[in-house]
Specification:
heterotrimer, A alpha/beta, B alpha/beta, C alpha/beta, A: alpha/beta, 4-stranded parallel sheet, 53% helix, B: alpha/beta, Rossmann fold, 16 helices, 51% helix, globular
């Protein structure tokens, strides 16, 4: 790692930058323009967010708050838990713990910094994580290994049984930093009684672990409040998703990332509810006049991402959608699996409900919700088993009227790289042109954006889609 | 010893072919978490699935993606080439992500290559934890496996038969532990290559035959003259390995002898005897899951380090070779931690990343091993 | 004349060194030939001729490098890791950390006061991070490697390359050329990609003390300066001899130890 990287803490740097960025738009347009001069590297991204209006600004405020929570947690006597994107932070908020979603921290650093998270990723390798491990954790974790962050107090993840690389990165961290660790473990099936019970038993063990770490008992009244907020959020997401099925979709590509980034950071919090309300309101306005959410105003094609998105410098990938009149129909990360939604009704046992009537029902709700988050829901068992990746993708692609599908991941996504060729073969048989991106969603050094874009464009041209 | 080498270095070895000639069934499995006793109790030969003798990777690469460990790809390649046509069944486990996808890859390859998919094809869901609910899940998995074997092969696996099988396997474990004790003594009378051949053979030979051969071999080891003095005493750890050649490569030139290992196909749990009385399913679960020391059981690093330290001490190890097959993050990351902690205790370590078996880059690996031996000389 | 020799047959170049009383009296470097024996013969003939000596004058000779087991005239073969450690110590007595980038691999090692290797790591990935990587890229840019090395100082905005694979990186370079990116920015991007991969390896052995780089890539100023930035440490230069000769020098020094009875006893 370059010595200058050690001058400032990673989380403090990011927090300061986002704090400033979230306030840029408070000034007059002239003042805003002037401020951009002082943030040359971050300018493009800041403009993308601020240009997206109040929603973009709300996203910046959300991230600003997220870092502030982390940076001031210990001052306020709170514990910090390192966790992962497929784990609902709502339980942390219910237990007054400050969560860190490592993948989100990596993605943010990548998007706003010219050199991305390369230095921290490489530090992760120097510390001992293999170069072939997932870059999404390795980036932010590298900064933690280097001691350049507010220290974490314990680690919670839920990927054993679903993603070795993820579970392993956190297990490694637990040893490397000598921190307590608990991982939920998911069986290879979803929806039957046996796995439902397993989810609950495992979750109970997890809460016992967190109670021991914080010294506080879980407060069911507080859990009830958080879950009621989740209810509100789920209802808003259902509305937004309904509108997303329309042609043209009223959502902009950036709204997809906002949907899930908000969920990974502030599920069960009012900030996220506010963001969702803004997205829903702006979408409703466009629906009324039949307008597209794309910058070009013209929707030529609808793409459903069967796995994750692409998070490197300047949000190149997202802008590419916007500039080419391609609607982003979400991906594995953005859709949610509440009951009584059209696409979950086709897949028995795949959805969850929220019931706050008793401690037992709340426990069951949160355990089942957590088990239906992205990735831990879809790729736990063989992809062609009922309810798993193939059926889920087909249901979503149909619901959102996708024209074609794209797979994107990181080389560390061993679990999908081991079967994605089979998956794509099946999707093509169902009539969906499907493209496999060979890049690393978090590291341009595996495949540069120039090459990624060229391959994307080649796919759209060869398949006669654009 | 010849029987062991034949069994350890050939996929279609004599004991398996003889078993088939007798009209009996063979079931392959992918991971050390499968209780072989279940099949033994049903007079089915359980064998560990292996990727040796692979030439080419056209089939493996067709179904698996690019960033995948070569071990399961080699198994798929062999399956696609019909090398496993003697199998009546296969059990796939989530030992790791690459391995568990052998389930889909093999099934889909079976649609393209006629007759390569055994008629009995089973997914055995092993949890990643030993807390009571994990153990309960595993017990149920074992019961489900038993039920399914009974149905498919039209057999009865009674508790009594299971207990007999446990006794038979315990006998083999005890003898393998004797070999482990012998190889770790100050005066070395047996090469690591020979020991590993015997240990790997134990995973593919009928238990009775293996135990009888092993007993004889142990007697012959005791009569052996000691190996050349001054050789470095090495330990081999890391990713799955059933490659006799790898141990041979380390011991080539007589500068070193492998006196201990901690490998998936090796002797890891031989000192544990499974209780022969009581509930056999519970006993199997507690042994196969409860006693397991492998990095897929996340959060148990300290136990695994302790296990290694014991072996290092017991066998007077001079240096540890830690290998991981490319894209094996579990062992890759753990090797780095082992290296950190063992070097701090003054135990020299060599960390290498490599391809599996027939694909191994012999020259490159040998260079590093030589440099390591020069370092500790 | 009583002399010792070392012969390093590498994948790109082969080197021979003849030493007397720990001083180089003759050395020679050639581009490797298809057969290691031919490379060794030619390199050694050149070194002997420079020393004004004949093959019979050599009292002990050690071979190293990829072709080490195929050289007929050597008494024994040693790994280039040990040889580069010894050679580096001779080139720069204060050295504690050695980075050796050869044609096909890249190694980072720590050595003790006698030049014995106490810890090492070698790259386990393909050609990227090796001399071959730079050679392929320079060919695509149609410039020589030294010129590419100087690009790092001139570049305004170095490009990002697919640095985990030489073939992909090559495709990236071609795309950048076609889209009109300045050659300096591409060249600097190549040097940075190379330096990042090497830095990861070096940091993983926890570098200490003076660092010396051996092997041909030590001559690439772009890689060296970027590497210095990444490591936050200066990489020492040596004028005592060509750092590319370190392996052969080390082999000759080990020959001398062997002759003086200080060599390994057990092998």
């Amino acid at each position: 790692m370059r010595p200058e990287m050690r001058e400032y803490n990673y989380d403090w740097l990011m927090g300061s930058m986002l704090h400033a960025a979230s306030r840029v738009s408070n000034g007059t347009p002239k003042e805003t323009e002037l401020t951009y001069r002082y943030i040359p590297y971050f300018k493009n991204v800041a403009q993308s967010f601020i240009g997206a209006g109040e929603i973009g600004i709300q996203i910046l405020k959300l991230f600003d708050r997220y870092y502030e929570n982390i940076l001031t947690a210990h001052e306020r006597g709170q514990k910090i838990a390192a966790s992962t994107f497929c784990f609902s932070p709502s339980i942390f908020y219910a237990m007054d713990i400050v969560p860190i979603c490592m993948e989100l921290l990596t993605a943010l650093g990548n998007i706003v910094w010219r050199r991305g998270m390369f230095d921290y990723m490489d530090y992760g390798v120097e510390a001992g994580l293999p170069e072939t491990s997932c870059s999404s954790q390795r980036g932010a974790l590298g900064a933690y290994f280097a001691g350049l962050c507010e220290p974490i107090d314990f680690i919670v993840c839920d990927t054993p049984g679903v993603c070795d690389t993820n579970a392993n990165a956190f297990a490694f961290t637990a040893t490397f930093l000598d921190k307590p660790y608990y991982a939920l473990n998911y069986p290879q099936v979803l929806g039957d009684d046996r796995s439902q019970n397993y989810h609950v038993e495992d979750y109970k063990e997890l809460v016992r672990f967190m109670e021991a770490q914080t010294g506080n008992k879980l407060d069911y009244d507080r859990l009830g409040e958080v879950l009621q907020e989740v209810e509100k959020q789920d209802a808003l997401i259902a509305d937004i998703e309904d509108m997303h099925t329309l042609k043209p979709t009223p959502l902009a590509p950036i709204h997809n990332i906002a949907l899930y980034a908000g969920k990974f950071t502030f599920s069960g919090n009012k900030e996220y509810t506010r963001l969702l309300e803004m997205i829903a309101d702006s979408a409703k306005k466009r629906v009324k006049i039949g307008a597209s959410g794309l910058k070009t105003g013209d929707e030529k094609l609808r793409v459903y991402m069967i796995y994750i998105d692409h998070y490197t410098l300047d949000m190149n990938f997202w802008n590419w959608f916007d500039e080419n009149s391609v609607a982003h129909m979400g991906g594995m990360l953005s859709h949610h699996f509440r009951d009584n939604i059209e696409y979950t009704e086709a897949l028995e046992g795949i959805s969850y409900g929220v019931d706050t009537s008793s401690p037992e029902s709340m426990f069951n709700s949160i355990a089942q919700m957590n088990a239906r988050l992205p990735m831990v829901r879809s790729i736990r068992g063989p992809y062609d088993q009922p309810n798993m990746w193939l059926e889920e993708t087909l249901a979503l692609a149909k619901n959102f009227r996708a024209d074609c599908l794209i797979y994107n991941g990181t080389p560390g996504c061993r679990n999908t790289w081991a079967n994605v060729k089979l998956m794509v073969r099946d999707l093509e048989k169902h009539g969906y042109p499907t493209h496999i991106m060979n890049d690393d969603a978090f590291d341009d050094r595996v495949e540069s954006w120039v090459a990624t874009r060229e391959r994307l464009e080649e796919f759209f041209q060869v398949r006669g889609l654009l | 010893m010849d029987t062991f080498y034949d069994a350890a270095t050939r996929v279609r070895n004599k004991p398996i072919l003889k078993w088939k000639e007798e009209g009996r069934s063979v079931v392959g499995y992918t991971c050390s978490y499968v209780p072989a006793e279940i099949f033994h109790a049903a007079d089915i030969l359980p064998i560990r699935l292996r990727g040796i003798e692979t030439d080419g990777m056209d089939i493996g690469d067709t179904y698996y993606g690019p960033f995948i460990c070569s071990f399961p790809k080699c198994i798929l390649q062999l399956a696609g080439k019909g090398m496993f046509d003697f199998l009546d069944g296969a059990v796939i486990t989530p030992g790791c992500d690459a391995m568990r996808r052998l389930d889909e890859c093999w099934r889909k390859a079976g649609e393209d290559y006629e007759g390569i998919l055994p008629s009995y094809f089973y997914y055995f869901d092993v949890p990643h934890k030993t807390e009571p609910h994990g153990m309960q899940w595993f017990v149920k998995e074992i019961r489900n496996l038993i039920d399914s074997v009974e149905r498919h092969f039209d057999v009865r696996i009674t508790d009594e038969k299971l207990k007999t099988a446990i006794r038979a396997y315990n006998q083999g474990r005890k003898l393998l532990q004797t070999v482990e004790d012998l190889r770790s003594q100050a005066e070395i009378k047996v090469s690591g290559t020979d020991v590993f051949a015997a240990t790997v053979a134990s995973t593919v030979m009928p238990r009775g035959e293996f135990t009888a051969d092993l007993e004889k071999w142990i007697q012959s080891i005791k009569q052996n003259k000691p190996l050349k003095n001054g050789q470095k005493r090495l330990m081999l750890v890391g990713s799955i390995s059933d490659e006799i050649d790898l141990v041979e490569l380390v011991e080539k030139d007589n500068h070193a002898v492998v006196v201990a290992e901690n490998l998936c196909f090796g002797a890891r749990y031989e000192s544990n005897q499974i209780p022969e009385n009581g509930n056999p399913v519970q006993a199997l679960a507690e042994h196969y899951l409860g006693k397991s020391v492998c990095p897929r059981m996340y959060g148990k690093y300290k136990e695994r380090l302790g296990f290694l330290k014991d072996k290092i001490e017991c066998a007077g190890v001079d240096g540890v070779i830690m290998q991981n097959i490319r894209f094996c993050d579990l062992h890759g990351a753990e090797n780095a931690l082992f290296e950190r902690d063992l070097e701090a205790m003054g135990i020299p370590c060599l960390r290498i990343e490599r391809e599996y078996g027939p694909l191994i880059e012999t020259g490159r690996i040998k260079l590093r091993i030589n440099a390591f031996l020069e370092r500790i000389s | 004349m009583s002399i010792v020799a070392g012969c390093d047959v590498g994948s790109l170049t082969s080197k021979a060194v003849v030493m007397k009383n720990e001083k180089i009296v003759g050395s020679h470097i050639i581009k490797s030939k298809p057969r290691p024996q031919d490379s060794a013969d030619a390199a050694m003939a050149g070194a002997l001729s420079a020393a004004g000596a004949g093959p019979d004058d050599i009292e002990y000779c050690i071979g190293t490098g990829y072709g080490r087991d195929k050289i007929l005239f050597v008494k024994e073969a040693r790994s280039e890791i040990s040889c580069h450690g010894k050679g580096a110590r001779w080139l720069l007595p204060s050295v504690q950390t050695v980075i050796d980038i050869g044609g096909q691999d890249c190694k980072a090692m720590k050595i003790d006061g006698d030049g014995n290797v106490t810890r090492f790591l070698a790259n386990d990935k393909c050609a990227s991070g090796t001399g071959r990587f730079l050679e392929v890229m320079a060919k695509v840019l149609n410039i020589d490697i030294d010129a590419m090395g100087r690009f790092s100082a001139k570049a305004r905005s170095p490009v990002t390359l697919a640095a985990t694979c030489t073939v992909w990186a090559q495709a990236d370079v071609i795309k950048y050329i076609n889209s009109g990116v300045a050659l300096e920015d591409i060249g600097a991007g190549i040097n940075t990609a190379m330096a990042q991969r090497v830095a990861m390896l070096v940091n993983a052995v926890r570098p200490e003390g003076d660092i010396l780089m051996t092997g041909g890539v030590a001559k690439n100023v772009g890689v060296v300066s970027t590497l210095e930035k990444l490591l936050g440490r200066k990489i020492k230069k040596t004028r005592k001899a060509d750092p590319q000769m370190a392996g052969a020098i080390g082999a000759a020094l080990l020959s001398m130890e062997q002759l003086n009875g200080n060599g390994r006893k057990d092998t």
